[in-house]
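Section 5.1 Outputs to date
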Amino acid sequence: MNPNALASGEGRPDRFKTTRWSIVLSCAGSGGDEQKARAALAELCKIYWRPVFAFICRQGHSVPDAQDLTQDFFVMMLKGVLLERADQTRGRFRSLVLKALQDFLRDAADKRRARKRGGDVQIVSWDEWMAEAPSHFSIPAHESERWSPERIFDVRWAATVVERALSRLGEECEKRGRRRVFDVLSSCLQAEREDVSYAKLSKTLGVPEVSVKRLVHQLRRRYRALLRDEVAQTVERPDEIDDELRYLAAALTAAE
């Protein structure tokens, strides 16, 4: 993983768009469009299934219990508890989720004794979700055993954000009839430049090296823009994006 590539401002939009998290914050406690805020929150939650589940497992819960607790946690968020806790001083959705999760787990035992796990709501079945969003990022077991739950959360979060950006890039390439180009060159997007064998890629794609270099450059730029957009959705202000990108890069570097 190349932290400098991830944290680069290349592909930076000229104007900061309204993001999902800024929508949630603007509506929290202000009588705004609650339906719009909850829809934005539901989209944000998709990024956090895996890091939340991994965090709970690392706390010592069995897989079935961790699945139930993860469901409970997201039900709590989507029912509005997180909206009530939203604070304008907490600009990053990642930080708020982690704090809310830690609070949730502290009193989860009492709540789970008082009612059936997950209440009467299930957001999505685990089989359906895992089939929809498989992870291509593995953490060596012998390494992760020494990691704190917080570090597990950060690594899983960072990997999910990267995978979402790559998935969007793949879909864009497919629409333009360039799926094979993406499949062959996607491994270069997060590699150091000196590790890329343009001659080998040229032979695989059957195009000149100069064309491969141009394609890699174009894909890198678009990937960085998409990654930046994914991160932007989880912060409130534009001045937080670069810090969050550096945090993401650091989390992935620590996992190598």
